[in-house]
Amino acid sequence: MTRGHVAEAKIWNQSEALVISYRVDRMLSATIQTALAMIYPPRCLTCSYLVDSDFGLCGPCWRDTQFIGGAICDSCGVPLIGHSGDGELHCDDCLRTQRPWVNGRSAVLYKDNGRRIVLGLKYGDRHDVVGPASMWMAAVARDILKPNMLVVPVP
Ligand SMILES: [Zn+2]
Ligand SMILES: [Zn+2]
């Protein structure tokens, strides 16, 4: 009876120690994050204006970034204005020129702020763009992603 009680207390202590250690780690992590945010506050990806969270866009830059949605070309991902989005659609360019890939998707139009983001990534050493850009691409490509498929970025 006593041995069982001791063993139970020991297990409880280990569990409590793990919980306390976990809380300290979380508090330390939160403190470090707060300190980093004070030293390096989150800034807009394109204009460096202060924003609420990391890897975001400020209001004017968000407005000037045209994210693609609705009916799109299944080959290159450009928006197809005037189409309902039902079935497999292709733009005039992809109908004229056969693409060497099966499906393509695009997250933003290559103009205005979308162009600035892409150029910053390609030529401006803006590695901070990789995270948000990959999230945007994953969101627009989720309907064509399959296990073991080859994904190639076409900047
Ligand atoms: Zn901005
Ligand atoms: Zn197309």
Search tags:
binds zinc ion; 46% helix; disordered N terminus; mainly alpha; 5 helices; 155 residues; single chain
Structure description:
The chain has 155 residues and is mainly alpha-helical. The protein has helices at residues 2-39, 59-63, 92-96, 112-123, 130-141. Residues 1-8 have low confidence and may be disordered. Bound molecules: zinc ion (2 copies). One zinc ion binds next to helix 2.
Helix content: 40-55%
Ligands bound, unique: zinc ion
Structural class based on helices, strands and sheet pairing: mainly alpha
Distance between the termini: 70 Å
Biggest sheet architecture: none
Order of helices and strands: HHHHH
Oligomer class: single chain
Residue windows where pLDDT falls under 50 for at least 5 positions? 1-8
Shape: extended
The number of domains: 2
Mean pLDDT rating = 84
Task: Report the radius of gyration as a whole number of Å.
Answer: 24 Å
How would you sum up this structure in a few lines?
By secondary structure, the chain is mainly α. It is built from five helices and no strands.
Task: Present the secondary structure layout.
Blueprint: H1 2-39, H2 59-63, H3 92-96, H4 112-123, H5 130-141
Bound molecules: zinc ion (2 copies).
